[in-house]
Design brief:
Elements (H helix, E strand, L loop, with lengths): L1 H13 L7 H7 L10 H11 L3 E3 L3 H6 L7 H4 L1 H4 L18 E2 H4 L18 H17 L10 H7 L13 H11 L22 E3 L2 E3 L30 E7 L4 H11 L2 E8 L5 E6 L6 E15 L2 E7 L11 E5 L12 E6 L1
Helix pairs in contact: 8-9, 8-10
């Protein structure tokens, strides 16, 4: 009898209650870093214990988790740097239930372009260049469409921004472009641009395999103040400059109004082991260790079955998640997603 009692108590402790709402799931979360569930075991646990997103074991994405930035690049941003906050929006314009920059500015092709940062912790530069490209298109009402160079920011911002392929501060990428400008870019080996991305993708993508170092990141590329051969334009003449930049308040409506007015924004969040297995749905951290920080491009929001979410462009190729995008819980600063959102305008 005593054995049965002990077993019953152990089983109750080790089993999670069935989850039906976001509130129930968040109430069950713990911050126990001793949790060692990874790989397929973690995916099985995630799919069993919540209905909000689908997870699938993805070795490529799991490898990318080893090349995330340190969480200091989010948590220290407001502490270490005096940053100009966005001016408070006084508009009474209604915020719609759903908003998608891909639809609102459907003539801006850069918004749908999903980048691949490869085996380099360059998400801060990649998502900055991606957001900036969209902003130029939105600001000029589609008249000026360009893809800005993530490699130019990654390689030339140097210690001012952070540590290259080991991570960097999102808002300092914008400040650097405000001071020195950024040239045109594109995917690896792209012709007709000044400085395309320095690294090819890793692994198998759309039937083609790319080999990468398995035990370390790529080294930060050298800063080259000149365009690739055959481009036909001088480096100095190819630059675009930020006019103003700011960090938004940790406020859902402030972020929404900024996006409605000026387009996509850059965001960053704390990542956990269970994010690597994301396949589709609304991501909510369920289980797994804290792994680092990740910067992304925020393009919209919506509601599904009563659950509010942000729509986000990742930089892990277009065959990850929802065609390169993902959705994450909105309005509760989940994974600190709403705490470090950067925006700006360009000199056009």
């Amino acid at each position: 009898m005593m054995f049965l009692l002990i077993f019953s108590v152990f089983f109750a402790i080790g089993s999670s209650q069935e989850v039906h709402t976001i509130e129930e799931l968040l109430a069950q979360q713990t911050s126990d870093d001793s949790d060692t569930l990874t790989g397929e075991a973690l995916v099985e646990y995630v799919n069993k214990h919540q209905p909000f997103f689908k997870a699938e074991y993805n070795p490529k994405a799991e490898e990318r988790m080893a090349h995330l930035m340190k969480t200091d690049y989010i948590r220290n941003a407001r502490k270490l740097y005096k940053v100009k906050k966005a001016e408070e929006q006084t508009t009474s314009e209604d915020i719609p239930e759903s908003f998608d920059s891909r639809i609102v500015w459907k003539n801006c092709s850069s918004i749908t372009y999903v980048r691949d940062q490869s085996r380099c912790g360059s998400c801060w530069a990649v998502s900055a260049a991606s957001t900036m490209s969209d902003r130029i298109c939105v600001q000029t009402k589609g008249k000026l469409q360009t893809i800005l160079s993530d490699t130019d920011i990654l390689s030339c911002c140097g210690r001012f921004c952070g540590d290259g392929c080991e991570g960097g501060y999102d808002h300092l990428a914008w400040e650097w472009v405000q001071r020195f400008g950024v040239v045109t870019g594109g995917p690896y080996q792209q012709k007709g641009v000044c400085r395309p991305y320095a690294f090819h993708p890793c692994g198998l993508h759309h039937g083609r395999r790319y080999d990468c170092p398995w035990d370390h990141s790529f080294s930060t590329p050298a800063c080259k103040p000149y365009c690739q051969f055959g481009y036909g334009k001088r480096y100095e003449k190819d630059k675009f400059f930020v006019k103003s930049t700011y960090i938004l308040d940790n406020d859902e409506k402030v972020i929404q109004r900024e996006m409605m007015k000026n387009g996509p924004v850059q965001a960053a969040f704390i990542t956990y082991d269970d994010f690597s297995g994301y396949k589709g749905g609304i991501y909510v951290h369920v289980k797994g260790r804290e792994r680092g920080a990740h910067a992304v491009k925020l393009i919209g929001w919506g509601v599904e079955n009563g659950t509010k979410y942000w729509t986000v462009a990742n930089s892990w190729h277009d065959d990850w998640g929802e065609n390169g995008f993902f959705r994450i819980l909105r309005g509760v600063n989940h994974c600190e997603f709403e705490s470090y959102v950067v925006s700006g305008e360009f000199r056009i």
